[in-house]
Amino acid sequence: MKTLRLLMALTLGGALALGATWHLNGERWPAHAEATTAGAAGERTPLYYRDPSGAPLWSAGPKTDERGRDYLPVYDDDQMALQPAKPKQQAASSRRILYYRNPMGLPDTSPVPKKDPMGMDYVPVYEGDDADDGTVKLSPGKIQRTGVKSEPVERRSIRVAVKAPGTIQLDERRVSVIAMRAESFVQKVADVTTGSRVKAGQPLMEIYSSAVTSAAAEYLATITSRTVGGLELYGRGSRQRLVNLDVPESVIAEMEKTRTAPVSVRWSAPRDGIVLERNAIEGMRANPGDVLFRIADTSVVWALVDIAERDLGNIAVDQAVAVRARSFSGRTFTGKIAVVYPQVNRDTRTVRVRIELSNPDAALLPDMYVDADIDTADSAPVLAVPDSSVLDTGTRQAVLVDKGEGRFEPREVKLGRRGGGYIEIREGLANGEAVVTSANFLIDAESNLKAALKGFAAAAPQASDSGHAMGEHK
Predict the structure, then answer these.
(1) What are phi and psi of 193, to 5 degrees?
(2) Residue 26: predicted pLDDT
(3) For residues 109 and 125, what is the distance between their CA atoms, to the nearest angstrom?
(4) How far is CA 357 from CA 195, 278, 313, in A?
(5) Distance separating alpha carbons of residues 455 and 474, to the nearest angstrom
């Protein structure tokens, strides 16, 4: 008897795997359909457990499937203890069906139920689903599937970071040139070359000039003369002549102290800096205006950057700027905007901006490439929404306001500044309103689809009435 029961259980398992069917009350049921147990399940020992969905899966002990449902026990008398079937929820909707739309979203509607060429049922559209208040209504399932997310509108500071490339240039006010103002001869040049650092007052060369020697002798004659009449006025004019010849002040002071006119004059550096140019050669003849040395102070340099014309309205003098040199990764030089040049480059549509930078260690060199990051953040908070929430067609900007219960209202807005992932809203929204930040394009497409379907549904009765009228006319 026990062998017979085991054989029947194995036969039942095979029937489950092969999808056998049986008949009950005139209806055809699959072999793995749900059934009620004749006796109490707790008084019998199950032979095995089967998958609750009817799949060919079995277990020797209690188990749950991947959806958390318990496996169903199979007993030795071929009876299966199953969960009671849930009543079908086919409560008829109290709302009136307006029309049926194509399940694939095509512009085709029907006043009665029908199927498309693929055998899919047309979707009913109920009264109230296409409200005329301008809102779009989505079911909770569609909202979850499309990943619709909303975020409240808040006031925040908009940070508009303007980035621009540029180059390092010398401060024009910190460059000195040593040139002779009279015909001279270079007698000796100090051990100074291009690129050398010099200090103010450091000797550079010795010059012999007949004009300088003559003026020095004349000045000494005036200050050593014992003549009283007009001495002061005449002596002052002689000293001015030496100054006009660009004789260093230290040389004039030495002459007044020693009462001796030098044969050659020692020229020294007028400022601290770097020798950018050295043209002086021992024994050479220097004509008036010839540049013998050019020295620049590099403790402060300029960064000349080109700002796009569209960002010009966000730039102002004294704004803080962070400059990064491509030669020094990770290092940032800070400065301020000193000048915004009053001209737009007609070819590049950019405006040049001058930024003054401190350069104490001379790391920034002339013509070095840099990248400027200008922080134009405004301390006053403004109404702002995320970038992703704005639907911009170029001529019209709108957002989708979340009205709750699956209703979304398209609303036109006026935008302001952009920066930091947010856009300023100047008109159209109030503080605290929720706007859609994700899947807003899908909602917009749904809105356009519903509008099109509504237009086709309205046109269908008109076409039908027109055809009927033509038939009566005939």
Answers:
(1) -125, 175
(2) 41
(3) 10
(4) 21, 27, 23
(5) 29
Residue of 339, 333, 259, 265 lying closest to 307 (CA atoms)? 339
What domains appear along the chain, each with residue ranges and CATH number? Answer: 2-75 (no CATH), 97-137+448-461 (no CATH), 141-157+380-442 (2.40.420.20), 162-171+298-375 (2.40.30.170), 185-286 (no CATH)
The answer on pLDDT for 86 being more than 50 is: no
**Inter-residue contact 408 to 398 (CB < 8 Å):** no
- Give the pair of three-digit tokens for residue 352: 């040049």
Give the separation between CA 376 and CA 125, rounded to whole angstroms: 51
The reported pLDDT for the residue numbered 4 is 41
Amino acid, res. 96: R
Query: The tokens of 316 are what?
Result: 């102002």
More confident residue, 319 or 9: 319
CA 371 – CA 164 distance, rounded (Å): 6
Cα–Cα distance between 364 and 370 in angstroms, integer? 9
Q: What is this structure's pTM?
A: 0.54
What does the alpha-carbon distance between residue 353 and residue 462 come to, in Å, rounded to a whole number? 66
3-state secondary structure at position 456: helix
Residue 231, helix vs strand vs coil: helix
Q: What is the pLDDT of residue 308?
A: 92
Residue 456 half-sphere exposure, CB side, CA atoms within 13 Å? 17
Length of the chain (residues)? 474
In terms of C-beta density within 10 A (0-12 exposed, 13-18 middle, 19 or more buried), how is residue 402 classed?
buried
How many helices (H) and strands (E) the chain has is answered by 6, 32
Looking up tokens 């002052």, which residue turns up? Answer: 236
The b-or-e profile of 226-264 (16+ CB within 10 A means b, else e) is: eeeeeeeebbeebbebbeebebbeebbeebeeeeebbeb
Contacts of residue 403, Cβ cutoff 8 Å, sequence gap at least 6: 135, 409
- In the numeric block, which tokens belong to residue 284? 């050479």
- Tokens 């966000």 belong to 314
